[in-house]
Design brief:
disordered C terminus, 8-stranded parallel β-barrel, single chain, alpha/beta, 21% helix, 10-stranded mixed beta sheet
Length: 560
């Protein structure tokens, strides 16, 4: 765990200190590095006077700031909670190691720091059976609403995760309303009946109140997962934009009147392909109710998020679901995820990047009996085995590399914010780059600047040839040089504020790291010339094939 010791007497020396890169995390194509930390002490990379550019040239524009990034993560489905709970019963030490590896947000910890979790309200295709939280037909007053129809292990695992990560954002979302609110009379498939709009809004309010009664504060709630998806083999529901908007407007009033004015309502939660359609209509009908909308990867392309952003630039965009499938290529998946999701969706104004199931077994089970939603089987972020062992998959490594760049640097500090970046040089095509600045709890501390870099230069004229790329990094008139291996690299350095990022721009609520765990790596104590020299200075597969920008194609999805 890092030690920060900066005396105020160092303030006058700050302008003379060079920006230096000490901290690097890497995942390489050949798995020789898997989310591996490298501290460059005693030989950091220093930003010096610029010279000739490298084969690629990354240019940072920290005067250009965009959205804050609020975290990466997955969904805690009933099935995910079950396999994790089984792991806890089988091997409690292994269970806690996995949770800490995924969720510990402590600066310097050997962990991904996942900080955004979706939880289905009622059953999904990853539940043991079909259920809602009120299955009593016609109970519009919600007298029979029962949160304890949710398996108890969901709350047990959730509370364990919360004990590790106190800055976790929790997003509730139903896969279907109760079946009696639909024209089919069942949660599987069907259309929502508008006459139950008020009752359904009450159902959602009851869900917030129920979680609150269990000591769980909710960050956001949705009205309907994938409202354009009808599948009779698991909980789904077709809901028009007008219906969803009406429910959300009623819900917003109920929430405001019952102590939940700070909870966001997030709409749509469906595929990119209709980004300029359904979610725009949703805002046209109910913009006052919604904080924004969420997208999935199963149809369309990430750039389509821009259609919504152009129509409603002040509304938040979230990326909340994608699933890989067992049998796909590890490195090809990493490239696709970084290009489209964990660099790409953020580049297209998303505040989050999430995968689907947090944990399953090695066969993508357990699933709802009879569902056809995952064929080939969906791959989770973490695979949990019946013998009490576990492993993490390519989804983990891709998200972990991105997450390291945006986590709050300090207790009480803000999240990372996307900043301007471009890539030049004759090998500019070889790199996909995201750039971020993280503010500080103490305005006198230096800002942290981070890069997430995918080097996907793995072939020459179609022949396999992984090629490291020697790259110059341009920052405030200075230049550093680093050779990026083929894979994903996350690195950072610190620099004085110099008025480029005003403290007021880092407008997220203060965060507190409680129940922090010790890191599994030992990092050096900071000094005025060390890596964190914060010296005082004003500061699925459904048949769809998704094309990549380098011509590669990869199967990553589960349903339409």
């Amino acid at each position: 765990m890092r030690l920060t010791v900066f005396a105020s007497t160092l303030a006058l020396a700050a302008p003379a200190l060079a920006q230096q890169i000490w901290d690097i995390w890497s995942t390489t194509w050949d798995r020789s590095s898997l989310f591996t930390y490298n501290n460059l002490s005693p030989n950091p990379i220093t930003f010096n006077s610029p010279g000739a550019i490298g084969a690629a040239d990354i240019v940072i524009n920290d005067g250009q700031t965009f959205q804050s990034v609020w975290g990466y993560g997955a969904s805690l489905t009933d099935s995910s909670a079950l396999v994790l709970n089984n792991l806890k019963n089988k091997n409690v030490d292994s269970y806690w190691k996995l949770l800490k590896y995924m969720f510990d947000p402590t600066d310097g910890a050997n962990s991904a720091g996942f900080s955004y979790l979706r939880i289905p309200l009622g059953a999904s295709d990853f539940s043991a059976s079909v259920y809602s939280l009120d299955d009593v037909k016609g109970d519009t007053a919600m007298k029979h609403f029962d949160i304890n129809k949710t398996p108890s292990y969901v709350f047990s695992v959730l509370n364990d995760i919360r004990s590790i990560n106190s800055v976790l954002r929790i997003h509730l979302l139903p896969w279907s309303p109760p079946g009696w609110m639909k024209d089919t009379g069942t949660m599987n498939g069907g259309n929502f009946l508008s006459k139950y709009s008020t009752a359904y809004a009450k159902y959602l309010l009851k869900s917030l109140q129920a979680y609150q009664s269990k000591g769980v504060n909710i960050y956001a709630i949705g009205v309907q997962n994938e409202p354009e998806n009808w599948n009779p083999t698991y909980p789904t529901c077709v809901m028009t934009p007008a219906q969803e908007a009406q429910i959300a407007k009623t819900l917003r009033t109920l929430m405001n009147n019952n102590g939940f004015s700070g909870v966001k309502i997030i709409g749509y939660d469906h595929n990119w392909n209709d980004a300029g359609g359904y979610p725009v209509e949703l805002m046209n009908d109910g913009a006052s109710a919604f904080a924004g909308v969420a997208f999935h990867c199963y149809s369309g392309g990430v750039a389509q998020q821009d259609a919504f952003h152009a129509a409603y630039p002040k509304k938040d965009i979230f990326f909340t679901e994608c699933s890989g499938t067992y049998g796909s290529d590890w490195w090809s998946d990493i490239k696709w995820y970084m290009d489209n999701l964990f660099i790409g969706s953020i580049e297209h104004n998303a505040h989050t990047g999430l995968m689907w199931n947090l944990a399953l077994d090695g066969n993508g089970q357990p699933m709802l009996p009879g569902t056809n939603s995952c064929s080939p089987p969906c791959r989770p972020v973490a695979t949990v085995n019946s013998d009490g062992s576990w492993s993490v998959n390519q989804e983990f490594y891709a998200m972990a590399q991105a997450s390291k760049a945006i986590l709050p640097r300090d207790a009480g500090g803000p999240w990372g914010k996307r900043i301007g970046v471009s890539v030049g040089g004759y090998q500019n095509w070889a790199l996909r780059v995201g750039a971020f600045v993280t503010g500080r709890a103490n305005s006198n501390d230096w800002l942290r600047y981070s890069l997430v870099v995918l080097n996907w230069a793995d072939n020459t004229n179609g022949a396999w040839n992984p090629t490291p790329v020697t790259t110059t990094i341009e920052f405030r008139g200075k230049q550093a040089t680093y050779t990026f291996p083929v894979g994903v690299t996350t690195l950072w350095w610190y620099a004085p504020n110099q008025g480029r990022s005003k403290r007021g721009e880092f407008d997220e609520p203060a965060v507190m790291f409680t129940n922090a765990t010790e890191a599994n790596i030992t990092l050096p104590q900071e000094t005025p010339t060390g890596g964190n020299a914060n010296t005082a200075e004003d500061s699925p597969f459904d048949g769809a094939v998704y094309g990549k920008s380098n011509g590669e194609k990869i199967h990553t999805t589960r349903f339409r």
